[in-house]
Amino acid sequence: PWSNNNNNNNNDDEFTRDEAIHAAFFVYDALGSSRRNSATYRYMLNILAKYFIPSSTRGNIAFGLWTRATEESLVDHNVIVALMGAFEDSNGTEFDEWIDAHIRPLMDDTTTTTTTT
Fold it and tell me: Dihedral of the CA atoms 34, 103, 92, 53 (nearest 10)?
């Protein structure tokens, strides 16, 4: 499910990409819920969008990150924007339906709230 967005199939680039993904998830785990913040989730969603091709795997990981951010009360406008901006391509019917039903309304709410205050 990996993506190489720089269109270069060089083994060094693939190794660097894999190490970046590994480091990101290692740091995420090492932070633990008591030290994570909303930026942690925004960056993880950005990494997921950049290095994983659109697929149900990417959708499932994004859903898991969203669920944890929600459980840790760390969802803010920036996390919602990262989720929406990162997943313009389809990640499977289930994920797309979930985005449409549960996340797009939040985006509309935060846009309305942001522009009216």
Answer: -60
